[in-house]
Amino acid sequence: METKYIFITGGVASSLGKGIISASLGxxxxxxxxxxxxxxxxxxxxxxxxxxxxxEHGECYVTADGMETxxxxxxxxxxxxIETSRxxxxxxxxxxxSVIERERRGDYLGKTIQVVPHITDEIKRRILLNATKQxxxxxxxxxxxxxxxxxxxxxxxxIRQLRWELGRNAINVHLxxxxxxxxxxxxxxxxxxxxxxxxxxxxxxxxxxxxxTEHHLSDELRAKxxxxxxxxxxxxxQSQDLPSIYEVPVNMQHQGLDSICLxxxxxxxxxTPGLGPWRNFLERRKKATKVVRVGLVGKYDLQDAxxxxxxxxxxxxxxxxxxVKTTFINSEHITSENVEKQLEGMNGIVICPxxxxxxxxxKIIAAEYTRTHxxxxxxxxxxxxxxxxxxxxxxxxxKDANSAEMNPDTPHNVIDMMEEQKSITQKGGxxxxxxxxxxxxxxxxxxxxxxxxxxxxxxxxxRYEFNNRxxxxxxxxxxxxxGINPAANLVEIVEIPEKKWYIGTQFHPEYSSTVLxxxxxxxxxxxxxxxxxxxx
Length: 536
What we know:
Structural class: alpha/beta
Distance between the termini: 59 Å
Oligomer: single chain
């Protein structure tokens, strides 16, 4: 079978869930035995979201090959279990950079470089790229932004051209919003009609419409949308609000999203997959009514800033038959006087990753409290570094201990800049990024959590590291370095074995947790939190 291409676009408003629909469709096609990938094309001019404020763009997700990407790639991986790469995340900035570099080399033989055809040709090349490297049946491409955005137009023109060139091997699924006017007591389809007309004006006729709604849409309303938008009525699908994003694939299958797409591309539909493991996960999730409480100590009061951590905790809770209730605790507001009150009622604490000095003292105070009160604690990246600094100050006696990131003049830089980072001046895409190996110490709590594996591979995003000059001193006082990168001798994991669960990782395990394969560290952490809760 020739590779088929599905383009996901959105209209009326942003944040409608194109990423969840893309991931759900990918999951459904994958369940039918097809090899798929999902890619995100973002219209912003940044090369990647690595330097963007989490308040503006949510978390920065990192692929195994070291690309800083949009958080939607996390949804793609969590839903489908596929491993995305730098080829799955493309921005306007990357497109223009590539074209400009080629122009500087003289590749265009003196031609005038224009949006059409040069920029659109590069977009088309990137859309097709994954299929040239892998034997794929379907490539799902999500276009960021909303129809009508000026920066999206080159992407839409590229899609128009590709749909003409690929014929039945390419279709467009358009996601829009159907608002409910409470004063009138009516659902309104006009925004959807306008959005589709904008698409049609660009030369794109959507084959499938997915209507986001907070209220059930009647058959009459769907028929009206189909009539005004030139779409088959069975291809007008509603995506109503659900208790969990993980119910969306089942809802989309029930309405036939995958079978409709197959029909539109001339592919035999065949029997409907049972989605057994996925449904088992949902069933366990519904039955998990007992609650375990986890506090997230961080500085970004925005759920998307810690999206992968939240989802990883949820996965682990489900497979431990508990519901994880998370509470954000702003580290800027934590003091030695109020820390007990701030962390009150939490069965476990995650000390979150981040950058910069804001809020770090609160994280250090939280780490001291959980260490001295034996509260299960999971420090991730910067969170691990704060655990290390706290231990140096309050156990090793170095009251001025710090990270060279926060205080370059500290005499006890227990966290220091990585040697290969010291000559780097540019910020974008220059950190230690992607998956690296880590050797675990046999018999450690971490080794046990990983199922007694001795060599693991996890994803990184940092410039600073544990200073090995202090390793012997740390271990003599009870904080063990139980995970070491074999190539660079970097300390990746620290733990205090005498505590119920006190582990910090320099890497980001949340990037590797999926619905059907929850991450072992999160599984073990939640198990410890539950044990502490039942003891209490």
